[in-house]
Amino acid sequence: MGVTVTVGEQDAYLARVGRAGMLLLPMITGIGEQIREWADELAGEGITALVWDPFKGRSTDNATREELSGLLREMDDDAALAEQSALLDYLFDDLGCSKVGVIGWCLGGRFAFLLGARDQRVANVVAFHPTVPSNRPPHHTYDAIAEAAGVTAPVLVSYPSADAAVPNADFETLQTVLQARTAGATFAQYFPGADHGFSDKSRHDKDVNADAFRLAWPQALAFMRSTVA
Fold first, then answer.
1. How far is C-alpha 3 from the geometric centre of its chain's CA atoms?
2. Could you tell me the CA-to-CA distances from 191 to 35, 87, 138 in Å, in that order?
3. d(CA 87, CA 108)
4. How deeply is 41 buried, as exposed, middle or buried, from its count of CB atoms within 10 A (0-12, 13-18, 19+)?
5. What is the dihedral of CA 56, 67, 117, 37, to 10 degrees?
6. For strand 48-51 and strand 10-15, is the pairing parallel, antiparallel, or unpaired?
7. Cα angle for residues 166, 169, 174 (degrees, 5° grid)
8. Domain locations in the chain?
9. What is the annotated signal peptide range for this record (predicted)?
């Protein structure tokens, strides 16, 4: 259903249907098969989906996760946010979307908070197992937990209790920050025993991860429909 489009100097995956829009920020897989399936599914729900390409054509379709992790460690926050902002502009100005939200997984979940804090146009922020450790690695210029306070849109965040990348204490801090906001509802999903990246089909050999996603995804779809329609 979707096609590759060029926005400025970057390519993106687009599944276009109407004036409700979502910007998708992938996990370590990049624009691999799974994120394209999710974009196409959103289009089937009546939501135009545009996917940011974090690794410039590299994805699990043509690279190993180790190679993509190396590219992630070289990523610059400001450059990535500039690309994402340009895609938001494209959704509004070129595609004519009236409302646009942002959804991200893992690294993309982190950027969803950063982008939502910077651009008040976003109609929602959806973050699946966002990679927001308080002990930030060198390539994390910004503290996404602290910056989440600046998000004024409704937020839905999904967290797995066995997340090896983000301690439970950090998720509790994130919840506290989100719930202290004076604008924007907060919806939190908590999945005991599920792993970081539980949305990824490659992790669904564990029932706890497959079950978590089976519960989480329909709720996220309903949340997106209600906030961008």
1. 20
2. 22, 31, 29
3. 14
4. middle
5. 70
6. antiparallel
7. 80
8. 3-228
9. none
Give me the tens of pLDDT residue by residue for the chain, a chain 229 residues long: 799 999 999 999 999 999 999 999 999 999 999 999 999 999 999 999 999 999 999 999 999 999 999 999 999 999 999 999 999 999 999 999 999 999 999 999 999 999 999 999 999 999 999 999 999 999 999 999 999 999 999 999 999 999 999 999 999 999 999 999 999 999 999 999 999 999 999 999 999 999 999 999 999 999 999 999 9
CA dist 148 and 72 (Å) reads: 21
For the record, the structure tokens of 158 come out as 């999904």
Q: What is the three-class DSSP state of 214?
A: helix
Distance set, CA 146 to CA 70, 91, 105, 176, 215 (Å): 26, 27, 19, 10, 28
Helices (H), the chain: 33-44, 65-73, 77-89, 107-118, 144-147, 168-179, 207-228
Residues in CB range of 164: below 8 A, 6 or more apart: 195, 196
**Alpha carbons 96 and 13: distance in angstroms, whole number:** 17
Per-residue tokens: 25: 């920020």
The two three-digit tokens of residue 196, written as one number: 């970081």
Using a CB cutoff of 8 Å and minimum separation of 24, what contacts does 206-212 make? 208/162, 209/160, 212/158, 212/160
Specify burial of residue 58 (Cβ count, 10 A radius: 0-12, 13-18, 19+). middle
Q: How many CB atoms lie within 10 A of CB 100?
A: 26
Residue in the structure block whose two tokens are 């399936």: 37
- Please identify, in words, the CATH class of the domain defined by 3-228: alpha beta
Contacts of 38 (CB under 8 A, 6+ apart): 24, 49
